[in-house]
Structure formats: structure tokens, C-alpha cells
Amino acid sequence: MSMSKENKKMPSIFTMAKNFAKDLGTYIKEGAPNVTHAQYTERLKACNTCPKLDKEKMRCTLCGCLVEHKAKWKTTTCPDKPPRWKPMFKSLAGPKNENVRKAIATNKILHKAYDAGIFDPKKPETANPILRKLGYDDIIVRKQNKECDGCDEPGESNSTEKGKEKKG
Ligand code: SF4
């Protein structure tokens, strides 16, 4: 197999699901922090010039994640060695934190949902019904568009932000 073909090979579906569940768990654990628009643009710029990116699918071939989604979450990191993204987040959560327990539980649930065919890591938004059931309405996965942090799409609005708008 040529070097270029090797570079474009995706991880297995199980590894992709595991990576996504891990990223999602960390994101939830840390309170769902997002990057700024400038940081998002900087990350995508790095991905777009990276040989590990499958440009057709816009997926990172190292972790299998959709980079336009992955880049929004402040807690995610570039899996390349050395990383092509600047580190942006340092965890403050202790191991006994309630959110850690929630994150671990969410990971397990997403694995089971994947096994049951309910959750498809190729379509991150299929995690939404599960997240809603867990009470994580404020961090549901939005469909990708050109914008980033703070953007709402019809039918995928952020209930927390809406509440704030109404009050203000
Ligand atoms: S996340 Fe890192 S390794 Fe993956 S495509 Fe982006 S820059 Fe490349």
C-alpha cells in the first residue's frame, strides 16, 4: 500500500465510536466549553493543511472524527504527534467530581447505543436523543454549518441560551 493511501485509511468504526464517546465525555465533564470563532478558524486551517485529513469526508484519519465538529469543542485535541493544534484546555475537574461520573456513564451509554444501532458515530447528531434523555439539552450536537460557537440551527437550538435571551 502506498504512503498516501495509508494516510487516508480511517480507524475502525469501533475506534471512531470510542474516540467520539471519549471526546464527548470529556466535553460534558468540563462543562461543554467551546472555542472562540478565531480559535475555530485557526484549528480548521491547521486541519486543511494536514496530510492526515480526508478532505472528501472532512474527517481526521487518525481519530476518525469530523474535524468541523471536533474543532468546536475546547476540550478536544489534535491526535497527531506533535499536535498541530495549540493546547487550549486544562482540566480542573477532580476524579471525584460528579461530572466525571456523568461522563463515564455517558460513554457507557453511547457504547451500548452504538451496539444497539441507535447511535451512529458517522452522524454525531444521532447522540442527541440520548443526550436529551440524560438531561444534557444544552450540549446537543448540532449539524455542521459554516459558523461555529454560538450558532443555532432550526430545530437544534440551545435551550440555555434561549432562556438567557428571553430574560435579557
Ligand atoms: S485533528 Fe490534527 S491530525 Fe487530525 S486532521 Fe486536524 S490537524 Fe490533522
What characteristics describe this protein?
168 residues, two-stranded antiparallel sheet, 7 helices, globular, binds iron/sulfur cluster
Overall spatial form: globular
Largest sheet: 2 strands, antiparallel
Widest sheet: strand ordering: 1-2
Q: From N to C, what is the helix and strand string?
A: HHHEEHHHH
Q: Give Rg in angstroms.
A: 16 Å
Description:
α2 (13-29) runs antiparallel to α5 (98-115). Helix content is 42%, strand content 2%. The chain contains seven helices and two strands; from the N terminus they run αααββαααα. It has 168 residues and is mainly α. It has a two-stranded antiparallel ribbon. The protein starts with a helix and ends with a helix. The protein has helices spanning 3-7, 13-29, 37-48, 67-70, 98-115, 128-133, 159-167; strands spanning 53-54, 59-60. The chain folds into two domains: 3-70, no CATH class; 95-165, no CATH class. It is globular. A hairpin with a 4-residue loop joins β1 and β2. The site of iron/sulfur cluster (SF4) has 12 residues, from α3. Iron/sulfur cluster binds at residues 46-47, 50, 52-53, 60, 62, 67, 78-80, 84.
